[in-house]
Amino acid sequence: MAKQVVATPTLFIDGKWEHASDSKTSQVLNPYDGSVLAEVDEATPDDARRAIAVAKTFFCESDWRDRPIVDRCALLVRFADLLQERKEELAEIETLDTGKTLNESKIDIDDVTTVFRFYAQEARKLALEKHIKGDAIPDSVQSIVVHEPVGVCVLITPWNYPILQLCWKLAPALAVGNVVIMKPSEVTPLSTVYLTRMLVDAGFPPNAVQLLTAKGATIGPILTESEDVDLVSFTGGLGTGRSIIKSCADTVKRCTVELGGKNPNVVFADCDLAWAVDNVITAIFTHSGQVCSAGARLIVEDSIADQLVAGVVERAGQIVMGNGMDPTSETGPLVSAQHLAKVEEYVKIARDEGASILCGGTRPDPAKQPDLAKGYFFLPTVIDRCNRTMSIVQEETFGPILTVERFKDGDEKGAIALANDTKYGLAGGVQTKDQARALRVARQLRHGTIWTNTYGAYTAQAEWGGFGLSGNGRELGSKGLDEYVETKHIWSETKPALMGWFKGGAHM
Ligand code: TXE
C-alpha cells in the first residue's frame, strides 16, 4: 500500500493514540479511483466504553469546565489560526477522502475558521452572570442565572462535509467547557484524525477530546445509550437519526439531529434565463449533489419551464467531472460504491414511476472517459415530468439528480404548496426579480434556511437546522451554542430567616 494519508493509530483515548483493543482495522478508499488511502483502527465497544469513562472523569474532576472563558476562547482562536496554517495539508486529506475538489475543501476550511472565531466571541457573552431583579424578589435575595457546560458530548458526523460538520459541533462544545467524543463516518474519517492532532497541538487538554474511528453500528448504541454521555449531536441520514433519537430516550439525554432534506428551488418566470440556469445547476450539482441543502427539486413557472430545463440540461452536460486534486475538475465522484448504487437505484425507480430522464441517469461512459472508470462517478441528471407522489421527488437521493415540477403562471400559492409538500424542511430557494415576492414566498416556506436570488451561502452567525423530518435543534448562531449549555438559576438569600411554613418546633 502507498503511504498512509494519515498516521496510525487512529483512536485517541485518554490522551494517547491507540490501536483497537482487538487490533481490527478497516480500509479507507479514495472515491476517485477506489485505491486504498489508509487503514484505520476500528474501535470496539470496550474502546468506546473506556473513552466514555475517561471523558466523564475528566469532565467531573479536571478544571477544564471552570477555566476562565477567555482561556478557552483563546484556544479556539489558536485553533482557527492553525486551520489556516495547515490548510493545504488538511484540504488535500479532505479531497482524497471525500472526492470533492480541492477548492471546495479549502472553502470548507475557511468557513470553519470563521466558525471558531465566531464562537470565541459568542461564548464570552454566556459567561456573564444574569442578575435578576423584580417586584417578587426581596432585596435580601440575589437571584442569578448562570450557564454551564452540559458534560460529555458525543459528536457523530457524516461523510459529505467531514471537517465542516465536525467543526460546527466542536467549536461551541469546547468553547463552553464540554468534553467531546468524536465519531466520524467510517467512509471519511481521515480529516477528523488530522484535526484531532491539531486540537492537541493548539493546546486543548488531550482528555477534553476523544476520537473513535469505527463503524456506526458497532459502537453507536454504546455511545448513545450510555448514562455517562450527556448529549448527542448527530448529522446524517433520517433512518440513523431516528434510531439515535430512540436510543437517547431511556437516559433522557439531549439529542440534536440534522437529517438532510429534499429542498425546493422555486423559479419564477421573471428571472433572466441564463442567470436562472446558473443558479439551478449550482444549487443541485455542487459536490455532485451530496449536500443536505442541495436544491434537488426545481419548481418552475410554466411559461419559462421548457427553456429553463433545456438550458439546465445543456449546462449539466458541460460540467467537468474528475479527480478533486486536479484544478480543472469542477466536481468529483460520489463518496462510495454503496452510495453510487443507491443513486442508481433511485434513477431506476424514477423511470419505473414514469418520469423522463433528460440527461445523465448513468455512470460516465468508460469508452469516452476512461479516467473516470475506476471511480464512483455519476453523470449530472435531470428528470422531467415529475409529480409530488413520486419517490424521486419525495426521497433524498443525495446525488446529482434534479427533478422538475411546474406550476401555472402566476400561481404563487401553488408554487408554495409544492415547495412545502415534503416531509423534510431543511432549505429552499426562491428566484424572482420581484424582491417583495421573494420575501413573501420565503416567509411562507416551511424550511430552516431560504435563499432568495442566490443559493447555498451560510454564515457562522445565523442558525442552521431543519423543520419537519430534517431534524431538531440548531447549529451555528447563538442557538448553536445554547445546545451545549446548561442553564442554572441560583436563588441566594443573604439574610436567612425562619421560613415559617410549618408551625411546629416552637420549643427549639
Ligand atoms: O449515513 P448515516 P449513511 C443521508 C443521505 C445518505 C443517507 C445514508 O441521504 O444517502 O443519509 O448515509 C454513524 N449509532 N445523509 O448511511 O448512517 C455513521 O457511522 C450511532 C444526509 O452514510 O446516517 C456516521 O458517522 N451512529 C447527511 C453517521 O452516523 C451511527 C449527510 C452518519 O451515517 C449509527 C450524510 C448508529 N446506530 C448522509 N449508524 C446530512 N444530513 O447532511 C451509523 N452511525
UniProtKB/TrEMBL annotation:
It comes from Malassezia vespertilionis. Belongs to the aldehyde dehydrogenase family. This is Aldehyde dehydrogenase domain-containing protein. InterPro entries: Ald_DH/histidinol_DH (IPR016161), Ald_DH_C (IPR016163), Ald_DH_CS_CYS (IPR016160), Ald_DH_CS_GLU (IPR029510), Ald_DH_N (IPR016162), Aldehyde_DH_dom (IPR015590). Residues 20-490 form the Aldehyde dehydrogenase domain. Pathway: Amine and polyamine biosynthesis; betaine biosynthesis via choline pathway; betaine from betaine aldehyde: step 1/1. Keywords: NAD, Oxidoreductase. The active site is at E258. Gene3D superfamilies: Aldehyde Dehydrogenase, Chain A, domain 1 (3.40.605.10), Aldehyde Dehydrogenase, Chain A, domain 2 (3.40.309.10). GO terms for molecular function: oxidoreductase activity, acting on the aldehyde or oxo group of donors, NAD or NADP as acceptor. The keyword Cell wall biogenesis/degradation does not apply.
